[in-house]
Amino acid sequence: MKTVYSDAHREHRIEVELYGSELVPCFEQPVRADSVLTQVIAVGLGPVLAPVDHGRRAITSVHAADYVDFLEVAWRDWVAAGGEGDAFSGCAPKSDMSRRVPASIHGRLGYYSFDAGAPITAGTWNAVYAAAQVALTAAAVLANGEASAFALCRPPGHHASKAYLGGYCYLNNAAIAAQSLTDRGMKRAAILDVDFHHGNGTQSIFYDRSDVLFASIHGDPNDEYPYFSGHADETGAGPGVGFNVNFPLPPGTGPGRWLEALAAALSRIRAYRADAIIVSLGVDTFEHDPISSFKLRSDDYLRLGEALRTLRLPTLFVLEGGYALDAIGLNVTNTLVGFET
Ligand code: FKS
Ligand code: ZN
To answer: Which of 64, 250, 292, 306 is deepest in the core (most CB within 10 A)?
Structure first.
């Protein structure tokens, strides 16, 4: 399996995040991607390719142009306004407030975010642009007829929607990849999101469409971030009704119940007769993940890969979360190796 990877992810490095009542080092760090790359090479998964630039248009076929413009200039505007340190969103509008875009960079950071979990720093734009290109290049590998590809993206993307960032995410790499496949004429693409957290951004982007099925297995939003999205009764809207499937699971869910949910998600994807599958691959479902509560063991990721294999579909893996730094590489490559063998 080919891996697509760019060093540009290292330009995005957030110092701290609010965790409970404390500021702690940000869990989403560059070393995450470095560990995955090291393990990809160690297991001999296959060649590692640099991304090819597919341009900005492939990004704005998912994200609003004004949002992408904002991401590109936010750091410059923050510095010009005297900002020091990372650019954090302070407040975001509720649905009964003005829809107007404020002039102030502080106001725009709020307007284009749903939480303070995705601050912007000097290298954020370069890194998120590169991550999107990594996903697009891996999608192109699939479009060229290969059975699978791995987009080793960072920062992750599944919380980012058409026009907002949040939860470590800026551009929705998996959605951009899926859209590039439908733009190439693919009739039906399925996205399976196995990250511990619900992929609210991906769900929102495709909610009213039937050409991209979104299925997600995640911590119940009654208990877990992102709290406002991911319930089982969110099934799609308009022409998209029936093409959004959520499997919320309780805190502490172990491998047995999780693999049952996976089987149910895969049978829905089979019934959809997808032409390809994009896997939003978060491994924060791991038993020792520092911010999540599921109890998957490293071997269970082999089972995940094997189960995906049974679909016999072109399969694109896109990296999302996973914060147990000493196990992220193994858990990701176990999924990919399980798929290959
Ligand atoms: C609330 C803490 C909020 C934010 C968790 C973000 C998870 C991000 C992720 C991604 F894949 F996007 F990286 N913490 N008590 O793992 O879903
Ligand atoms: Zn996650």
So the answer is: 292
CB 108, CB 101: distance < 8 Å: yes
197 as an active site residue: the answer is no
List 12, 63, 159, 197, catalytic entry = 159
What pLDDT, on the 0 to 100 scale, is given for residue 282? 98
Closest residue by CA, ligand 1 atom 15: 225
> What residues form DSSP beta bridges with 166?
169
pLDDT in tens, 148-184: 999 999 999 999 999 999 999 999 999 999 999 999 9
Between CA 171 and CA 182 the distance in angstroms is 18
Q: Looking at residue 296, what is its pLDDT?
A: 98
CA of 35 to the centre of ligand 2 (A): 17
Report how far ligand 1's centroid is from the alpha carbon of 146 (Å).
31
Cβ of 320 below 6 Å from ligand 1? yes
Pull the structure tokens for residue 11: 């330009």
**Model confidence pTM above 0.90:** yes
Whole-number Å distance, alpha carbon 318 to ligand 2 midpoint, is 13
Measured in whole angstroms, how far is the alpha carbon of residue 220 from the centre of its chain? 18
